[in-house]
Design brief:
By secondary structure, this protein is mostly helical. It is 81% helix and 0% strand. The chain has 20 helices and no strands. The protein is globular, with a radius of gyration of 22 Å.
Length: 489
């Protein structure tokens, strides 16, 4: 495969991975050492420690078990079935619950989630294993990023327990917890994208170091998209709405909570990936998985006609307008702002007006009918109707679905028909979608089980609903808009 020009980050990842890793870890360690001198970090140490334990149970353990399980066909299915049964059997994990109750608010939920996620990953091992083999590196990098965010948020505290940009210390800590959870979830989305790009470049003939550098450079538009869409939304619900004041330190903490985990996950994860020895197993599993996905979409392709896509757009528009008349008085403006920002960010980051229209329209079409059917649950909106959790669920769903739009933009060609472009985009983005959905949901369940952010459980359910519905609708959406944009049959 011909090489492409690497950017500065790609050159560092490919040529200086050890120096990059050492300098970054030393910087984070220095910040954390300064933060340890503050009393506020010691007060919340058990909360952070419980969150890290929950992340290990819900994310690191399933990924590690899936990666090291032998490839014999019956063994993963057997171990996965045992894990599912363990998740449903209280006597198996009852003894462990008492030992974790000091650090976790709901240890039973954490352990059940860990068993269930391990079982799902093992039963669907062909879809997960190529990414899980290297995800441990990206998970460690994301944890380093979270430690950096915790240190920065502690250092932005002004006088003891007196927060600068919120009224009470409890409000400030809740805002920081939301920012940490959202930043880590977005970092998981970015790492899933980089992992799949690395495997694709390696399977195309590039070496490990070159594939790592190219995947890190290729992730730049995606990081810009995540920053443009998430910083205003998270800031609205963690700074502006609770206090109606904005400070320099509050903005610094907000930007760091999103940018630091994403950039560190990509740089350190890709740098560690570049140091791994070259192996053909990743390329073999990548090609076999793509062949399976292609066979599945061959059965769907006859139904991806332009008239069906246009009919899907028309019906979705009618349903959205009809439900909007019923909920316009109760719909919180934060969700409309989130959907609009997702489209606007895709327009700027992907340098495509059509990509922004497609993503923004898809999120609005998903939001209106599903909100109307749900009846605005209290678990998502709270007693006062504030849609912090609802906006975060919509934001994370947009981050998970955005690679589909980016692949659609890359697959567009004047000589390809609308259905060919839609099928190609859906096939290429399916592995990234699966990994992102799995890791984001696991991270949210970890935050819920540890008590770090209690509404994260409701956010996880709505992320699943939004993302799966949007994934099913996206091929027809692409075909319909492809026909509108002049790429018909």
């Amino acid at each position: 495969m011909p090489t492409c020009r690497l950017g500065p980050i790609g050159r560092l990842v490919a040529n200086r991975p050890v120096i990059l890793t050492l300098l970054t870890c030393i910087g984070v360690a220095a910040l954390f050492a300064l933060a340890l001198r503050r009393d506020i970090l010691q007060e919340h140490a058990s909360t952070y420690f419980g969150y890290f334990i929950s992340l290990g149970v819900c994310i690191a353990a399933p990924a590690l078990i899936t990666a090291v399980t032998p490839g014999v066909r019956l063994i993963p299915a057997l171990i996965g079935s045992i894990a599912i049964v363990a998740a449903l059997s209280e006597p198996i994990w009852r003894n462990a619950v008492s030992g974790l109750s000091f650090y976790l608010a709901q240890p039973s939920i954490t352990l059940q989630s860990g068993f269930a996620l391990s079982g799902i990953a093992l039963l669907a091992r062909p879809a997960f294993r190529p990414g899980f083999r290297v995800f441990q590196l990206f998970f460690i990098a994301s944890v380093v990023g979270v430690i950096g965010v915790v240190a920065i948020s502690t250092l932005t505290q002004v006088d003891g327990n007196t927060p600068e940009f919120l009224d009470t210390a409890a409000d400030r800590q809740t805002a920081i917890n939301i920012q940490v959870v959202m930043g880590l979830a977005l970092a998981f989305c970015a790492s899933s994208w980089v992992i799949q790009r690395h495997i694709a470049f390696f399977a195309g003939g590039a070496g490990n170091a070159e594939a790592a550098g190219r995947s890190a450079s290729y992730a730049a538009p995606y990081i810009v998209f995540l920053a443009l869409s998430s910083i205003p939304v998270v800031g609205l619900h963690t700074i502006i709405y609770p206090s109606y004041t904005v400070s320099a330190l509050g903005l610094l903490n907000l930007i760091a909570s999103i940018i630091v985990p994403c950039t560190m996950t990509i740089m350190l994860g890709a740098a560690g990936h570049s140091l791994l020895p070259d192996t053909e197993n990743s390329a073999f599993h990548f090609n076999r998985r793509n062949r399976t996905i292609r066979e599945l979409f061959d059965g769907v392709r006859p139904y991806l006609a332009s008239n069906i896509g246009l009919a899907a757009i028309a019906m979705a528009g009618i349903v959205t307008v009809a439900t909007a008349f019923d909920i316009v008085g109760t719909l919180y403006s934060g969700e409309l702002l989130t959907a609009s920002l997702l489209g606007f960010a895709a327009m700027l980051a992907f340098i495509s007006v059509r990509a922004g229209i497609i993503l923004g329209g898809l999120m609005i079409v998903l939001m209106m009918p599903l909100r109307w059917l749900s009846g605005f649950p209290v678990e998502l909106y709270g007693e006062e109707g504030v849609s912090t959790a609802a906006s975060c669920a919509l934001l994370l769903s947009g981050a998970i679905l955005s690679p589909l739009v980016l692949e659609w933009r890359e697959a567009r060609d004047p000589w390809r028909k609308a259905r060919d472009v839609a099928t190609r985009a859906a096939m290429r983005s399916t592995p990234t979608f699966i990994l992102s959905l799995f890791f984001v949901t696991s991270g949210l369940l970890a935050a819920h089980g540890s008590g770090f952010w209690p509404p994260a459980g409701a956010v996880a359910r709505w992320v699943l609903l939004y993302s799966v519905t949007g994934y099913i609708l996206s091929p027809f959406w692409f075909v319909g808009f492809g026909a509108l944009f002049g790429r018909g049959e």
